[in-house]
Specification:
Layout (H helix, E strand, L loop, with lengths): L13 H8 L3 H7 L1 E5 L1 H9 L1 E2 L2 E2 L1 E6 L1 H6 L1 H9 L3 E4 L2 H7 L8 E6 L5 H6 L4 E5 L5 H13 L4 E5 L8 H7 L8 E5 L1 H10 L3 E5 L5 E2 H7 L6 E5 L8 H4 L4 E4 L11 H17 L11
Parallel strand pairs: 4-5, 7-8, 7-12, 8-9, 10-12, 10-13, 11-13
Antiparallel strand pairs: 1-6, 2-3, 4-6
Helix pairs in contact: 3-5, 8-9, 8-13
Length: 286
C-alpha cells in the first residue's frame, strides 16, 4: 500500500529538532552526523556503507516524495535506515534549501583517515588547501570523482566537508571516493610525496604551463593537484612545497578561470595523461 498520511506533522517533534540542529557545524561534529538532501544524494547515501554499517541512518520524506521515489525509500529501508513520513512544512523546516525536494537524509560521517588514503597508493588526488566556499569545495569533489581521482584531501584551513552546501554541490560524489579532512597542508604534501605522488600546485601565476606539462609527458605518473583559495590562490609557502606550480593557459581574453573550472581542467588533463600509452593507468582501467 502506498503511504497516505505523514506521521510527523509538528516541527517541534524531538526527531525534527534533532535533525534541524545538524545544519550547525558544532552539532554535526558532536553527533558525527550530517544532512543529505534531494533524491540523488539520498540514493547514494542509501547505497553507501561505512565499514560494517550503513551510512544512512534516517530518512524524512513527504508523502508525495515517498510515492515518486519509491525505489529510494525501498533502498533506504534495505540499508537499515528509519523512514519517517513528514508533512511538507516539517521537511521545509529541516531542509537547508529554498525549494526542498521532499527527501532529507541523516548520514554518519564518512571521512577517511589520511593514513588510509596513503596506504591505498592513489594515482590521482585533489588537495583543497584554504578553500573556504562550500559550493566550490563540493563542485571540486564532484570534478575529482568524474575524472577518476582516487581521493580528495581537505586541509585544516578549508571548509567543513559536511556543510550542507558542500554536500549538495557534490551531487552524491561525496559518497563515491575517500575524503580525508583536517590535514595540515604540509602533512598532506609530505605524506603524498613519500607515497610516490608528484605534487602540482594549480596557480594562475605558475611558472609551468599545463600544455607544456602534457607535451613533456611529465603528468603520466601518480599526481596530486593542490588547489587554493578562491580569492587569493595559494600562498607562497604552499607553492614552495610543490614539485611544480602549473597555470592553465588562457588562450582567449578571459581574465582567469574560477576554482572549479580550473580544477576540472587540471584533473582531466592528469586523467588523460595517465591513461595514455606509458601512463600509470591502462586504457581499460577504471
Amino acid at each position: 500500500m502506498p503511504p497516505t498520511a505523514p506521521e510527523l506533522i509538528s516541527p517541534r517533534s524531538s526527531r525534527v529538532l534533532a535533525a534541524r540542529r545538524l545544519a550547525r557545524r558544532n552539532f554535526r561534529g558532536k553527533e558525527r552526523l550530517f544532512l543529505a538532501e534531494g533524491p540523488q544524494a539520498v540514493r547514494e547515501a542509501a547505497a553507501h556503507r561505512n565499514g560494517g554499517s550503513g551510512t544512512l541512518t534516517d530518512l524524512f520524506a513527504t508523502v508525495e516524495a515517498a510515492e515518486r521515489y519509491a525505489d529510494i525509500i525501498g533502498a533506504a529501508r534495505t540499508a537499515g535506515a528509519r523512514v519517517h513520513l513528514a508533512a511538507d512544512d516539517v521537511i521545509a523546516d529541516i531542509s537547508t534549501t529554498v525549494t526542498p525536494q521532499g527527501l532529507v537524509g541523516i548520514c554518519r560521517f564518512l571521512d577517511t583517515p589520511f593514513e588510509d588514503v596513503l596506504r591505498a597508493r592513489p594515482k590521482l588526488v585533489a588537495v583543497l588547501a584554504h578553500v573556504r566556499d562550500p559550493g566550490n569545495a563540493g563542485t571540486v569533489l564532484r570534478c575529482a570523482d568524474a575524472a577518476g581521482a582516487e581521493a580528495v584531501v581537505l586541509t585544516d584551513a578549508s571548509v567543513d566537508l559536511y556543510n550542507p552546501k558542500t554536500v549538495r554541490a557534490s551531487v552524491g560524489s561525496l559518497f563515491h571516493l575517500p575524503v580525508a579532512v583536517g590535514v595540515p597542508v604540509e602533512q598532506a604534501v609530505a605524506g603524498l610525496k613519500d607515497a610516490g605522488v608528484r605534487i602540482l600546485a594549480a596557480d594562475g601565476a605558475g611558472t609551468d604551463d599545463l600544455d607544456d606539462e602534457l607535451d613533456r609527458g611529465t603528468m603520466r605518473g601518480p599526481t596530486a593537484w593542490v588547489f587554493g583559495n578562491e580569492a587569493w590562490g595559494l600562498p607562497q609557502e604552499t607553492r614552495a612545497l610543490a614539485d611544480a606550480v602549473v597555470r592553465v593557459p588562457i588562450h582567449g581574453k578571459a581574465e582567469s578561470l574560477n576554482l572549479a573550472t580550473a580544477a576540472a581542467v587540471c584533473l582531466y588533463a592528469s586523467a588523460r595523461a595517465q591513461r595514455a600509452s606509458g601512463g600509470c593507468r591502462t586504457v581499460t582501467e577504471s
